[in-house]
Amino acid sequence: MNDTIQTILAFGALALALLFLIRKFFWKKSKKKRAFGDAHDCDNCH
Amino acid sequence: MSKQINVALIGNPNTGKTSVFNALTGLNQKVGNYPGITVEKKEGICKLSRGVKAHIIDLPGTYSLNASSLDENVVIELLLNKNDKDFPDVAVVVSDVENLKRNLLLFTQIKDLEIPAILVINMADRMRYKGISLDIPHLEEQLNTKIALVSTRKNYGIAELKELISNYRELSTAPCMHASEIDKDYFDSLRKAFPDQLLYKLWLVITQDVNFGKTDRNEIEPVADFKTKSKSDLKRLQQKETIKRYQFINETLKKGQIIDLSTAKDLRIKLDRILTHKVWGYVIFFLILLTIFQAIYDWSSVPMDFIDSTFASLSEWTKNVLPAGTFTNLLSEGIIPGLGGIVIFIPQIAFLFLFISVLEETGYMSRVVFLMDRGMRRFGLSGKSVVPLISGTACAIPAIMATRNIESWKERLITILVTPFTTCSARLPVYLIIISLVIPDKRFFGLGYQAMTLMLLYLIGFGAALGSAMILNKILKIKSKTFFVVEMPNYKLPLPKNVALTVIEKTKAFVFGAGKIILAISIILWFLASYGPGDDFNKAEEIITAEYANQNLTDDELQQHVASQKLEHSFLGITGHAIEPAIRPLGYDWKIGIALVSSFAAREVFVGTLATIYSVGSDDEETIKNRMAGEVNPILGGPLFNFASGISLLLFYAFAMQCMSTLAIVQRETNSWKWPILQLVIMSTFAYIIALIAFQVLK
């Protein structure tokens, strides 16, 4: 493994790590609106 | 032709409804399915007096008329559809003498439908063992019904029940309470709009999302478009209705049902008497906690040492076997030590969840919830807050989501805001490594100081949650009412399979959930520690060679100084030095500062970060613990991780809001940024002040 490949692999890992963290903490996922009448957390309590 | 009446047997699951059905019908029964669905339909014939026959339908068990399953839909569809051939002339509501409070919720709803209803209190033979006595005339008066005390096991009360069914025309159809009081205006307008319809039936049709195909829906179809309330307002009204019903039930049972535990003869009751005792209950809980923490330390030390040395060897092996270069360094100095920092805690986390799971499986945890409810009220919390607070020991995120079943907004908000104080499993790695460094591995009457410190930290977390709840209760001016109902399951031996599955699932969630973040942060940290601006970093070798030219240092010693110079002037080092003035009064150096900043994403990153920082440039096959123990305080001299700085760090992590995911979930649950920001500022400031005081006092 020469230096260039090592550097590419290392920076590739860095890019993946950054992407993962951005997705994890800053990416706002679009949420499906819960329809009225869907199983509600309280329904099974009563 | 003899007369036949329809009788519906209704009740909560596990109330012995089917036993009552069998006792009434004997062999005159058949089992089929409701048309179009797979829900079982049991019906039979019972001969009553005066030649009357009762056609009895054993309806599926349901907790209330708020349907959440196909089985429950069947019950509601029948009770709302007068045109159904099975529509009951009389409803027989079966309850269990031990769970009367919960069972009566359904009864009060059925009474609101103005169907003649008989209340069967089943398992009456258990009353003596449970120390229960009932004032039947009082209950009959309050509930506006007739009651049959039945024991299908001892075979009594069935004849009386048959007699009551025969005389069903004498039963009052008037509701026993007025649920419409939850919103008088709304129900008045509903009554005016549909004067010919039964009010509670309209309410059920409006609020239930079930298939009413078989009911006379056409008549009340326009009601579905009754736009006076939004869906969320209706949901809130439903919750208010449930609270109102429980208030009525509680009031009724206050006089109608007396439970005298001192006369109880049942083993379960005897155990409950001790485990939920106002003094012994807490003492036993405290002793159980102490045993758990001691065992966590005693049992996990061997596997932990093994994992620690394995990762150290793996790191060294990678460096020796792979060709030298950037990626090899990243692997051996960044990724492997970072991962080692999480894998090492698997044994302790697995043991913790093993104990928690056993306590849950045996039914003890419900007793703890009950026990704590008394104390919780003083702090402005509800008994239901105990569940989030206890599950917060695993992770604050599901714990905060678990607050959704707290009806009172004020209690829910307080629970959301204080839950992050409870010691989550992400704090555990930080606590474990710091405790092992600064608390002596000695014992006092067989109890290790380290285990006791860990337990103390859990208690501090719980205490901080309660203390802040009390303050919030006084500050927050929100009016609300709540109710607490908890079902005490029977004691049972834990199923090994269930326990094993819980342990595997929880440990896996911790390792993979935290592991990915730690891996990503380790990679970024390694880059920041391995690259830097300016000559101080790029010409580190020349600077150090010149600086130590007159001293006869070996090559290894020289390389150590070069690595140290590079780290200090790397991007990471510069960041650490920038925040050092703020954290030095707490006894921390710039390396700990970096770990504090990086662990803001998630607390467990702290150990991985330090493992990465201390690995950069190090050639020795060292364990994380040894590397941390070898760090020297640059200002005061002596070990960096000493008693004062260690305690300061432990307290900082006990109180600080070091979790981005928790902040995100608080924002989602409160639908506002105000609360998570307040939580972050207050918790972090408090943590800083306490850590500062601890270090300054102890140094």
TrEMBL record, chain A:
TM regions (residue ranges): 6-26
Domain of life: Bacteria
Identification of the protein by name: FeoB-associated Cys-rich membrane protein
Keyword terms of this UniProt record: Membrane, Transmembrane, Transmembrane helix
UniProtKB/TrEMBL annotation, chain B:
Transmembrane helix recorded as keyword: yes
Membrane topology recorded in Swiss-Prot or TrEMBL: Multi-pass membrane protein
Domain FeoB-type G: 4-171
Similarity comment: Belongs to the TRAFAC class TrmE-Era-EngA-EngB-Septin-like GTPase superfamily. FeoB GTPase (TC 9.A.8) family.
PANTHER family: FE(2+) TRANSPORTER FEOB (PTHR43185:SF1), FERROUS IRON TRANSPORT PROTEIN B (PTHR43185)
Physiological role: Probable transporter of a GTP-driven Fe(2+) uptake system.
Gene name of the encoded protein: feoB
SUPFAM superfamilies membership: P-loop containing nucleoside triphosphate hydrolases
Main location: membrane
Protein location: Cell inner membrane; Cell membrane
Keywords: Cell membrane, GTP-binding, Ion transport, Iron, Iron transport, Membrane, Nucleotide-binding, Transmembrane, Transmembrane helix, Transport
NCBIfam families: feoB
Annotated transmembrane regions: 279-297, 335-359, 413-439, 451-472, 509-529, 592-616, 636-656, 677-698
UniProt-listed Pfam families: FeoB_C (PF07664), FeoB_N (PF02421), Gate (PF07670)
Name the UniProt record assigns to this protein: Ferrous iron transport protein B
InterPro entries: Fe2_transport_prot-B, Fe2_transport_prot_B_C, FeoB_GTPase, G_FEOB_dom, Gate_dom, GTP-bd, P-loop_NTPase
Origin superkingdom: Bacteria
